[in-house]
Design a protein that fits this description.
The protein is of the alpha+beta class and 81 residues long. 41% of the residues lie in helices and 20% in strands.
Length: 81
């Protein structure tokens, strides 16, 4: 059974840099980091904090609804240039 790193790597490899750049408004630099959601976090706040969009976070992390984001969930966050 693949671990978290392997799952994240597979997900990132499935998306092209062009797709990520388009989804992030050109801000994607080719780097991602793994963030663990804290109690008061929400997608809008995280998108603002890290210079991305709610849509990018949802697409990159296969999020269907806001209820999928809760304390302890790990999200891939694209780094901006």
């Amino acid at each position: 059974m693949p671990g978290l790193f392997e799952k994240a790597k597979e997900k990132v490899e499935a998306l092209s840099d062009d797709d990520l750049k388009k989804a992030s408004g050109g801000a994607y630099t080719g780097s991602l980091f793994l963030y663990t959601v804290q109690k008061a976090d929400n997608l809008s706040m995280l998108a603002h904090r890290y210079g991305t969009t709610v849509g990018t976070l949802m697409e990159l992390n296969d999020i269907k609804t806001a209820a999928d984001v809760h304390e302890g969930v790990r999200l891939l966050i694209p780094l901006r240039g």
